[in-house]
Structure formats: C-alpha cells, structure tokens
Amino acid sequence: MSLRINDIAPDFNAETTAGPIRFHEWIGNGWAVLFSHPKDFTPVCTTELGYMAGLIPDFEARGVKIIGLSADPLESHKRWVNDIDATQGHAVRYPLIADENLAIAKLYGMLPADAVPGTRTPADNQTVRTVITIGPDKKIKAMIIYPMSTGRNFDEVLRLIDSLQLTARAGVSTPVNWQPGQDVIVPAAMSEDDIRSKFPAGFRKVLPYLRYVAQPGDVVGATEAGSGKK
C-alpha cells in the first residue's frame, strides 16, 4: 500500500502498552504523530523513545498526541520501556503499539505485503523508520522516513507541526528554515489588494510571486513551548 500526503491514515485496532486502541478513535479531534521502529532493544530507537518522552509537554501544548510502533510483541515492549526509562532520563508514558505480525507496518506501506514475521532482524525491518503526522481530519499531513543509522530530529517534527497548524489556519506558507515568529509567505495567486485587506499591517514584496507578511496569530512554538528541548 502506497500512502501519500492528504490520504486518510488507515484505521486499525491494536494492542499497546497503554491498552487496546482503535486508531482513529484514539486520535479523536486533534493531531497525532505515529513514529515507528524496526525492532525492540535497538540502540538508536532507544534514544528516540526517551527523547520523545521528554517532549510530551511540547506536543500536548500543540494539541498533538504521540504514539510509537515497533515490530515486536507487547511483552517485549514492556521490557524495552524499562531500559528506556532507566537510561534516557524520561519515562515512556505514551502508547507503544505491538506489531509482531507486521500488519500495521504493511498497512502503512513500511514493509512489503509478503514480509514474514517471526524471524526477521532489525535490518530486515529497517524501512519501519517513519514519522507520520496526522491532522484532525485523519488525513496524513507529512511523512518523514529515516535510515536505521540516523536518529530522528523530533525538534524538527515540532517545527513542522507549528508550520502545518499555522498554514492550515491562516492560509499562508512558511519559507525555508522558518521558525515560529518569523515572517511567512502569502499565496502567489493572491492579489496585492487581497493581501492588504487580509494583512493590513502590510507586506514585503521580493518578487511578484514572493511576498512576505508578519506571522499572523500565535503559534505555540514562538512562546513557552518553542524550544523543543527536554
């Protein structure tokens, strides 16, 4: 199954370290981030799960739930979480999905349909290293895929969510390396009269199709939860 931005995120039932869930019901009316792992007791993923635990207040401030997935059974997850809690400085309190039969990894196109569970190694499962951001409409808003050797940058995921939420609310775009509080870009199709009407504080014209305005409204990342640091 090949998923794209704006596709509905596939729904599923799953067992997690926080109990059974139905995914869409668990998401509710807010945003969610699903981040997946090829195997329990893998070193890079151990650091990632711990770091995400430290970012829970930052995600909650944005109305975002986080949930992990690993291609192993529930009892293995519970043992792994103990290691993470003991070594990474933050206790894992968000759900971790058990996917020992690889059904969800296949549903989300992380593994081929003919992948066989049971004897697979982390290297066999290495494509299960995905970060998926899902909106309140249950549509996929962004996807990032990492190799096994590179730890994910979850501060960047927070920045991405700030941009997604702002652009959805205000009908603007964010430029390269944008940070909350910086100027944003108005649509190229918007007339200058419409820009003046919508953004009375004015705009900065660099090219006929590249016009900047001050960031409209508040973004969490520009205030107390903006550091993304533990």
Keywords, separated by commas or semicolons:
3-stranded antiparallel sheet, 10 strands, 230 residues, disordered C terminus, 5-stranded mixed sheet, alpha+beta, 2 domains, Glutaredoxin, 7 helices, 18% strand, Antioxidant, Horf6, Chain A, domain 2
Largest sheet: 5 strands, mixed
CATH topology assignment of the largest domain: Glutaredoxin
- What radius of gyration results from the CA coordinates? 20 Å
Low-confidence stretches: 223-230
Brief rundown of the structure:
This protein is of the alpha+beta class. The chain has helices at residues 23-27, 43-54, 56-61, 74-87, 103-107, 154-170, 192-198; strands at 13-14, 21-22, 31-37, 64-70, 96-98, 130-134, 140-145, 184-185, 204-207, 210-213.
Characterise the protein shown here.
The chain has 7 helices and 10 strands. A hairpin with a 6-residue loop joins strand 1 (13-14) and strand 2 (21-22). The strands form 3 sheets. The chain has a 5-stranded mixed β-sheet with strand order 5-4-3-6-7. A 3-stranded antiparallel β-sheet has the order 8-10-9, with no helix packed on it. It has 230 residues and is of the alpha+beta class. The chain has helices at 23-27, 43-54, 56-61, 74-87, 103-107, 154-170, 192-198; strands at residues 13-14, 21-22, 31-37, 64-70, 96-98, 130-134, 140-145, 184-185, 204-207, 210-213. It has 2 domains: 13-150, 3-Layer(aba) Sandwich (Glutaredoxin); 162-222, Antioxidant, Horf6, Chain A, domain 2.
